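Record type: monomer structure entry
Structure origin: computed from sequence
Chain ID: A
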Amino acid sequence: MKVIVTGSTGLVGSALLRQCIADDRITKVFALTRKALPDEVAKNPKIAVIIHQDFSTYPEGLLSQLAGAEGCLWAIGGRADQFPNVETYKRVQVDYTLAGAKAFYEHLAPQLPEGRQFRFVFCSGKFAEWDQTKPLKFMADTRHVKGQVEQGLCEIADTDRTGRFVVYCARPSGILPPNAGLPARLAGKLYAAIDADRLSKALIRILLEGYKDKIIENNVLLEL
């Protein structure tokens, strides 16, 4: 399978690239990124690095480079407190994600052979909230924005009467880097944190095999 990976220089995105390279079921990875990748990744024969600066637009030339992709692992985003302000966070998390999904739905999914699906797997977050008016006691901006993305993605998928474009929203709790020390791992047990590589394997499995639910909670991710 040929897949698209975004957020390639981040914690989850870089782990996704490592696990895609290791998975024999994935034949090609289009690493859609604004920055160059490390040589050990970029020079791997499975990886096609595509530099793309504006994730709000998908011109014809870019889409032609992505032709043949049957899925996307979307790992752009993070928490609201990692951005200068909420407006910037919404632009990156909501606008970019929905623009990518819409472009893939309209241009890549219809090109697939009959009976094949384009699976869009979004790395969301635990406790994402769809109700934008609901008061939240912690991480309100992050949870509302993640919920807004999830809702928008599901609305795109619901407009597809052919069943060729499918959305999955994974909701991990805290994510541990591969080099996390013992204190971090012990603390992570308090909120059921998941290792980045383990999360990536779960996301890839969802991409390759699908799943019975659109929303996939952290406890399920830990078991996949």
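Annotation 1: The mean pLDDT is 95.
Annotation 2: Strands lie at 2-6, 28-33, 47-51, 71-74, 118-123, 165-171, 175-176, 194-195, 215-217.
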